[in-house]
Amino acid sequence: MENNLAIVFSVLFWLTPVALTIHLALKKTESDAYKKRLGYIYGGLWAIAFLSYGWLFIQ
Fold it and tell me: What contacts 59, CB < 8 A, 6 or more positions away?
């Protein structure tokens, strides 16, 4: 079970910045407020993955 969680958190950790880059590239015409909010959402996902991934290895 822990191996599956580690894989999920690892994929989420590494692909979140890629997904943000692609999303921003597709939404070039959106406002800066939208892009900032999007950054907060993806940043939150990345932080959750980072902390969870670290927590799994501390256990």
Answer: 2
- The H helix count followed by the E strand count for the chain is 2, 0
Q: Cβ of 16: how many Cβ atoms within 10 Å?
A: 20
pLDDT tens profile 1-57: 667 877 887 888 888 888 888 988 988 888 889 989 988 998 898 888 888 878 877
| 57 to 22, 38, 54: CA distances (angstroms) | 30, 29, 5
Structure tokens at 49: 């993955």
d(CA 37, CA 7): 27
In this structure, what token pair is assigned to residue 51?
């902390």
